[in-house]
């Protein structure tokens, strides 16, 4: 009965407006800048330390390769951050995804807009995925920049002993980034699920980290070797495959399948939990 | 007149479930709406009827189930039983199409503390698939202007006073043109000046043709700006209708001053008055449909010495105290 627009706006079937707004929330938040600064600091610290106190050995280890080629700062930093810093960053964002909105009470206003609950989960999860890829890319790119600056580039010595050109070396690092992005996106799916269970974002983040660390611990216990191929984190280190010649993409399939399975199961769980949930926050 | 009013009001009997053929044209209509939390029945078979164009005061003391009802109206929580229509459409099936026409405030304002007021509105607008992105700036400016937040639009939300927060929440409800506004305690926590401004805003919106349903625990608020009222008490809607209807429904009492209250009471009872009581030098009873003149004539005929005679119509406050057993805060 109130005055409507003369020419009513016809909604597009797919609009990226909400997703863009979500990304602005994630990447515009000061807390997350601090987190990303910490992620980017690690490759810088590694490179500076290696420059000041050059190590001895010339083995296949990424750290020992840094003096020969700055590109390895990227790989050394990713290896160093994979057990804790990268999962923690993703857990912070994923844990906050739904629980954070519930905690501030903004969830009820989003739903009343209305935002369809399935769409809300989809946008929240996409935001987490984009953050996961961005976080890995940030570590790799910072490592590459500081590495080239301090140690220079040149041909890359692979784990299998052969050399490839610098350009191909960069492509292989990109492959590592994409693979780890997928792995961390699976963690993000668990995170979004946990985030639908609570109104406490910090609690959700801690729970996600507990699950991650548990997966790392179980992966160390020999008696559980039958279980280990199915653990979330078991295949994360498989990215070393990108540094063999030739790259056998088949070796990455188990890791990708496990990631896809965790993603599917936990997104379905998040949906089942959230679609009919009472929002009384 | 009062009879007709009663039937017009909330006492219509309506089939509770599965009556898809039955569509009310009311802006809000609930059918047996019920919400249980464990053993507690927070909302109990509520049959709201908010006519189009009304300013409906959803009145009840704290904890009477107003917010829970509003959460169900907005689809935030699922009813344990019952269903509802908004703007003449069944909510369960059409929520996505109805809600863009509904502006809401539920259980106080809630925004991202580290974003500015303007950024918070942009966030909500971005989430609205039906909102036109080409007009977003103009619509946000207009909403901010309307609630008087233009100057503070760039400040972070966490620096806002409670009154500013409340007004930002109202601005969010006004981002697009709305046919129905559901406002949960819109003046809660405001100072007298802010309260006046919000009430003026609500009246203005209603004048433009929107239906407004606002919850409140203040009877004075209902008397000042509402055309209709529904009273909640312990999860039940104990009465509803237009203010005029309710006033007409108010049970008028007659009061006879006499040396012989017992005799007067006998006459009143004989005339069919209910709830006849006596006090020192007085007799009282519910007037009902009887003409007061007839009572006086009969008293005189029965040789009851009448010193004084009066008809007392209770005000809304008295009525609601009677309905709910509690008073309403009439300050503010
Ligand atoms: N999520 C919930 N879980 C359990 N009880 C609740 C919940 N929400 C509300 N209640 C209870 O329902 C009753 C009605 O609350 P509410 O609707 O908030 O009342 P009002 O808005 O009228 O003050 C209260 O007794 C309250 O404690
Ligand atoms: Mg309330």
UniProtKB/TrEMBL annotation, chain A:
Alphabetized Pfam families for the sequence: ABC2_membrane_4
Q: Which UniProt keywords apply?
A: Membrane, Transmembrane, Transmembrane helix
Name of the protein in its database record: ABC transporter permease
Q: Does the keyword Oxidoreductase apply?
A: no
Q: Where are the transmembrane segments?
A: 33-53, 73-94, 125-151, 171-194, 201-218, 251-272
Q: Which organism is it from?
A: Virgisporangium aliadipatigenens
Lineage: superkingdom: Bacteria
From TrEMBL, chain B:
SUPFAM superfamilies found in the cross-reference section:
P-loop containing nucleoside triphosphate hydrolases
Q: Do the record's keywords include ATP-binding?
A: yes
Sequence ranges assigned to domain ABC transporter in this UniProt record: 28-259
- What's one Pfam family here? ABC_tran
Question: Which region ranges are annotated with the description Disordered?
Answer: 1-21
Domain of life the protein comes from = Bacteria
For molecular function, the Gene Ontology terms on record are: ATP binding; ATP hydrolysis activity
Q: Which UniProt keywords apply?
A: ATP-binding, Nucleotide-binding, Transport
Q: Which InterPro entries match?
A: AAA+_ATPase (IPR003593), ABC_transporter-like_ATP-bd (IPR003439), ABC_transporter-like_CS (IPR017871), P-loop_NTPase (IPR027417)
Q: According to the UniProt entry, which residue ranges have a biased composition of type Basic and acidic residues?
A: 1-11
Note the Gene3D superfamilies from the entry: P-loop containing nucleotide triphosphate hydrolases
**What's this protein's family per the entry?**
Belongs to the ABC transporter superfamily.
Q: Which PANTHER family match?
A: ABC TRANSPORTER, ATP-BINDING PROTEIN
What name appears for this protein in its UniProt entry? Answer: ABC transporter ATP-binding protein
Source species taxonomy? Bacteria, Bacillati, Actinomycetota, Actinomycetes, Micromonosporales
